[in-house]
Every structure is written in C-alpha cells, then in structure tokens.
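quick one, 204 residues, struct below
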Amino acid sequence: ENPQDLPFTLAYHFDDAAPLAHLVAATGTRRGDPAAPDTIAMDGSAAIWPVGRVRTEGELILDLTNGAGIRGLPTGSWDRAPTRAMLVPLLTGPERTANGCLLVGLNPYRPLNEAMAGFIRLVAGQVSASLESARSLEFQLQRAEALAQLDQAKSQFFSNVSHEFRTPLTLISGPLAEAQRHARTTGIDDLAANLEIVERNALR
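---
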C-alpha cells in the first residue's frame, strides 16, 4: 500500500503446461501496461522479466538502468523510475516448489540492503503462505465433494442390489405361501413352519 517503499509489484503464477507465467496481481501499474504483461514465456524468449529463471537460480536482482527493454516503468511516488527490481520465487507445497514469483520495483533513492531484502522476502513468504492456505482449503473442499459423491454412489449401489435381490425373492414368495398352505392341509406342520421361516428370511 506504500508506493514509496515499493513503486510497483507484479505477482505471476506459473503454468507449466503452456509454459507461461500469468499475471495474477499488480500494484503501482495496471494489467496490460508495458511493465505488466498478462503473460510471459517461461523459456526466456521474451525480452521482459526473466521470471522462469527463479526456478533454477532462485532470488534475482535485475538491473533496470537501461530500461530492460521496458518503456515507461512505473515510478510510484517518485520522480524517477526504479533502477533495480527484485524477483523472488513464491514457494508452495511440501517440496517448496516455485509455482510463481513476485517481482518488486525498488525505491530508486534507497539502497537495497539486507533489511530491505528481508522485508521483500517476508512479503513473498506471506503471499506464499496465503496461496498454500487457499490450496489446502480447495483440496479439502474437493475431497469432501469426492467423499459425498462416493457415499451417494454407494447408497445407489446398495439400493440397486437390494432391488435386484428383492425382485426374484418376491416372485418365489407366492409359491412358498402356496406350499405352506398345502403342507398344513396335508398335516405336515413341520414343513409348513420351515417354509414360513424361509419366506420370512427371504423377504427381510
């Protein structure tokens, strides 16, 4: 929120399938401005912001004194554009993989010392932690939805099984009842009792 500390910032998310880096947030500049392209090629073929290098090199300090091929760099609260920028990976997951990066235009009137670098790393860490929390919540929601679908499928399965078993058992209930009546009329009470038990157990 302070354009004096950080004249501009850009946050990119890495899409390995493309492979491209997609702009997801910006301060001090607008999406689509020369300094804030919507997408950047991860293979380094683009003339702007070497975002893909953070995967192999980690944190980078970029020299912007020659404009770095960018017209009209944002100045924030100052009368001159930043001469350097800091590129920090956004690490997520158990293996701390760089799935994005934070690019920060540095105050042109303040040297980049360890305190300032630490502050920027802290900002990047907070962004990474927020991303991790969002991903964890998304995973939990997806898992809960999958479990609900599984439970519904299980209930449907048992309902179908019950129906399939009940249909033939219902068909034999008539002959069982007739056999019981015949056994009673002929005086075979034990057989009638057994047939009654069979019928009762079959239709449970």
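The chain has a mean pLDDT of 81.
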